[in-house]
Design brief:
This protein has 122 residues and is mainly alpha-helical. It has six helices and two strands; from the N terminus they run H-H-H-H-H-E-E-H. The chain folds into two domains: 1-68, lambda repressor-like DNA-binding domains (434 Repressor (Amino-terminal Domain), Orthogonal Bundle), CATH 1.10.260.40; 76-122. The protein has a two-stranded antiparallel sheet with strand order 1-2. The longest helix is centred in the C-terminal third of the chain and has 29 residues, at 92-120. The relative contact order is 0.11.
Length: 122
C-alpha cells in the first residue's frame, strides 16, 4: 500500500504524466510535487481537489483503498481531457505541448510588460 507520497506518484504515473505537468494540474511547482512524492511535505485540500478533477482517485491517495464503482469501465489512462470545440480526446502529449506554448506566450507577454514599465519609468 505504501505512503501517501508513494500513492501520489503511482497515480501520476498511471496518468502518464511527469512531475512538472502533474504539479501544474495541482497548482504547484515541480519541487512541491517532488516533496509530496517523497513524503517531505503533505498536499493541501486545494491540490487534492485539483488533481481529483484530472481523474486521480483521492480516496486511494489518502486511505490506500480504491473506490470501486458498480459500473466502472476501463479508462484510457493517457486521455483525460476533451477538446472543447471538437469534443475529441486530447492526449497527454498534446496537452503538454499546449501548456508549453502557453508558457512561452506568457513569458513573452511578461517581457513586453517589463519593457513597457521600464520605458514608462515604473
Amino acid at each position: 500500500m505504501g505512503t501517501v507520497g508513494d500513492r501520489i506518484k503511482e497515480e501520476r504515473e498511471r496518468l502518464g504524466m511527469n512531475q512538472t505537468a502533474f504539479g501544474e494540474i495541482g497548482g504547484v511547482k515541480k519541487n512541491a510535487q517532488f516533496l509530496y512524492e517523497s513524503n517531505s511535505r503533505s498536499p493541501d485540500a486545494q491540490y487534492l481537489e485539483a488533481i481529483a478533477k484530472a481523474g486521480v482517485d483521492i480516496n486511494y491517495i489518502v486511505t490506500g483503498n480504491r473506490i470501486i464503482q458498480k459500473e466502472a469501465r476501463p479508462l484510457d489512462d493517457k486521455v483525460i481531457f476533451l477538446n472543447k470545440k471538437t469534443g475529441k480526446p486530447i492526449s497527454m502529449n498534446e496537452l503538454s505541448d499546449s501548456l508549453e506554448m502557453v508558457r512561452i506566450e506568457l513569458d513573452r507577454a511578461r517581457e513586453e510588460v517589463r519593457r513597457a514599465q521600464e520605458i514608462m519609468g515604473f
